[in-house]
Amino acid sequence: MTAAPVPWTLDHLTGQEVAVPAMRQTIRTIYTEVYAEEPYLRSESDARDWDENVLPRHLDAPGFALVFARTAEDSIPMGFGLGVPLPADNRWWSGMVDPLPEPMTVEDGRQTFAVYEFAVRKAYRRQGLGTAMHNALVGPWTGTRTTLTLRASSPAAVGFWDSQGYRSVGFSRPYPLAPLYTMMLRDHTPPSGRDD
Fold it and tell me: Which residues form the N-acetyltransferase domain (predicted)?
């Protein structure tokens, strides 16, 4: 028997709001818990490195967006997703195993929104929360596409992102010792500005 979905609240947080120590610790705790699972198997040390060396770069990026999910009744953290627009000097496409044609990889900060992290705690999966978080994160984007990378060895992640309309455009190894990631791309219909 499946448990009834837990009502949630989604908050859009700025980089300054995420940088507040209590929120920063909450985000790190979710990251540590979710990415300790297969196939990631990241350690507490990996989470600390992400928090100290990777997250700050995102917080300072123009267009940074983070959606934070919590239970509606008692504000228990459920998950978060974060991303930024790809600037002209990005390295997002540089790790492609088979390079993509140049028109696909030229960025200007207005075309592509990259989902860098997306984590939903295990107890709150398969309730529609991931879709709601994704819609809240990328829905306001006014560019033409969104992108992310995923581990093909996680069938649940593959199924979820397929259901969100993403397609594979190849494989990426962003740095020499990195695992192989599937590069995903999704055409994005910008908001119309109308209340249809």
Answer: 25-186
Q: Which residues contact 157 (CB under 8 A, 6 or more apart)?
A: 150, 151
What is the model's pTM?
A: 0.93
- The DSSP-derived string for 42-106 is --HHHHHHIIIIIHHHHHTSTT-EEEEEEETTT--EEEEEEEEEPPTT--TTTTBSSPPPHHHH-
In a domain, 20, yes or no: yes
> Where in the sequence is the domain holding 79, given as residue range(s)?
8-187
pLDDT, tens digit, for every residue of 143-172?
999 999 999 888 889 999 999 999 999 999
What span, in angstroms and rounded, lies between the C-alpha atoms of 10 and 69? 5
Cβ-in-10-Å burial (0-12, 13-18, 19+) of 102 comes to exposed
**Tens of pLDDT along 119-135?**
999 999 999 999 999 99
Q: How many residues does the chain have?
A: 196
**How is residue 159 annotated by DSSP?**
H
Q: Where residue 61 sits, what CATH number does that domain have?
A: 3.40.630.30
**What is the count of structural domains for the chain?**
1
Note whether residue 84 is domain-resident.
yes
What's the alpha-carbon Rg for the chain, to the nearest Å?
17
